[in-house]
# Entry
Amino acid sequence: MKQALIIVDIQEAFFLDSENYLFDYEKVLENINKLITWARHSEVPIVFIQHTDSNQDDDFAFGKPGWELYHGLLRQPKDKVIQKTTWDAFYQTELAQYLQEQQIEQLIFAGAQTEFCLDTTIRNAYSRGYHQNMLVEGAHTTLDSHVLNAQQIIKHHESVWNNRFVKIQPLSFFIRSKEGVQ
# Structure
């Protein structure tokens, strides 16, 4: 089954001000970079989703420092970058076409924010017929809300998603050695 690694919205805005730091971001970034290494070794295409806000005052507005993909990601020029303007990485983007052209059958998800862009994209992928998707445990995150803290949000969404919209897999499912080889 041909796979693609989809990394959603890991952008500088989450690292410029301590008020916007994602929960457990250091560990999540480490895990995402391990996934990127695994994907390169396994010849799995990597797609970076980049939120692009139409409000020029927003941190995620095109060209703003916060809009850039996080500098600490192990991104290479050959990796696909798809800009989106809503929470859904499929909505009015080239993602569906790209996946079809690459004959991708299974999506592996990581990124932010758990309850917004990641949730919307995961559910839409399922609705589009991608029924064998995976989410990597410890490779997605969010911020505290006024109702729940980030850990509660993550736990809640994982309980809703698992074995419905995705199968949640530990990083060790992909990474069996220090070299990042499956």
